[in-house]
Amino acid sequence: MDFGYQRRCLLLTVVIFLLQVQLFLAVTLAKTQVPLSSSSSYNTSSRSRRSSSLRGRELLGCDLFKGKWVVDNSYPIYAASSCPYIDSEFDCLKHGRSDTQYLKYSWQPDSCNLPRFNGLDLLSKWKGKKVMFVGDSLSENMYQSLACMLHASAPKAPTFQHKDSLTTLTFQTPEQ
């Protein structure tokens, strides 16, 4: 296995998967003060919505870029081999990488705690909205990673995918 391939796998899995998506979602949710929830249901009580909204405001004052990588044994959120949206060449384990410790890191800012990614909450709160990734292969990797995280959260949700010069993916939630 050449060093370039290992480097690409590490970059995809650690940097893009954990940092980019977590930071993007945390900042977006905090700015819009969308309630954050640790529950996997679509309905939350008004009490939990109030406390979650306060949590979102706390993240506004957090410097997300100062922190460290910490071992989190609840990761990874998805297995590349079971995700239909990830390109086969980015499945490091399939191509001979034997260790998995590099998959178990999450970014921990010094001044706050980021909530764990909750795909069902994201699907519920962004219902009817669109997200676009523009750029090169790094943007494509971020798109694939987000699609895999959503798929892992709602594996039985009907999806529609169209690929040509522009790839689109639609998840349907039970309410749709």
TrEMBL record:
Q: Per its UniProt entry, which superkingdom is the organism in?
A: Eukaryota
Its localization reads: Membrane
Which keywords annotate this record?
Membrane, Signal-anchor, Transmembrane, Transmembrane helix
Principal cellular location given in the protein's record = membrane
InterPro entries in alphabetical order: TBL, TBL_C, TBL_N
Q: Where is the signal peptide?
A: none
Tell me what topology the record assigns in the membrane: Single-pass membrane protein
User: What GO annotations for molecular function exist for this entry?
Assistant: O-acetyltransferase activity
Per UniProt, residues of the Trichome birefringence-like C-terminal domain are 114-172
Q: Which residue numbers delimit the Trichome birefringence-like N-terminal domain?
A: 61-113
Note whether Membrane occurs among the keywords. yes
State a GO cellular component annotated for this protein.
Answer: membrane
Q: Which family does it belong to?
A: Belongs to the PC-esterase family. TBL subfamily.
Q: What is this protein called?
A: PMR5 domain, PC-Esterase
Q: Which organism is it from?
A: Helianthus annuus (Common sunflower)
